[in-house]
Design brief:
There is one protein chain. The chain is mainly beta. The protein is built from one helix and nine strands; from the N terminus they run αβββββββββ. It has an eight-stranded antiparallel β-barrel. The relative contact order is 0.22. This is Lipocalin-like domain-containing protein.
Amino acid sequence: MKRFYTYILLFIFFSCSNSNKDEIVFDSNVFPQHWELTGMSTGLSGDFLEGDDLPWRETILLEKDNRFVKTRLVDNQKNEAGGVFDFSIVNDEMYLVLNYDVETDLIESCGTENLVETLFMPSIISLIGGSAPCDGPGLFYERME
């Protein structure tokens, strides 16, 4: 139950940001879109990491041709994967769905579809993903452009 409240608080935090990024008008047809990992919940511990405390740096670049590249940098080691993406609306909520070309460690998902990662879009400047429901990290991204 503690974990549930942690996610609710994180959702509110990212949804109520007062940064100038609120001026970005979301249009799923405007590209490129650059998303950057800004926070991480660490699963069962309930800890939240951000900034220099993050164990890796990660970006998601969405291109006009519906292709994406996800890049993760860990200890100066760069790992990239890509595929096609789409935006999906389910019960009036927006999601970004990443369909990877090949299996990779960059996919953070609890789903049974090995090549699919789904991220919830609570606002036009934030994404929430990861594998928190299955005791992995919850990942929080902000749109940079």
